[in-house]
Design a protein that fits this description.
- This protein is mostly helical.
- Helix content is 47%, strand content 0%.
- It has 3 helices and no strands.
- Helix 1 packs antiparallel against helix 3.
């Protein structure tokens, strides 16, 4: 489900949600789900789409949106 959130983010923006100056920084951001909705790309995106991504790119597996 987490991957679906990342893929959705990429499909809506054309860019990955996580960036880092090096591999260590990138992996830290991935593990902590440290991303943001940067304007103006997200200005035209619905609140529901953002909520969907937030529910999927959730670091706590128990809180993450499930298939059910």
């Amino acid at each position: 489900m987490w991957s679906i959130g990342v893929i959705t983010f990429v499909l809506l923006t054309g860019e990955p949600p996580f960036y880092g100056r090096n591999a260590a920084e990138l992996f830290k951001k991935i593990k902590t789900c440290d991303y943001e909705f940067v304007q103006p790309v997200w200005q035209q995106t619905s609140r529901e789409a953002k909520k969907f991504i937030i529910a999927l790119i959730e670091p706590n597996m128990m809180k993450r949106l499930t298939v059910e």
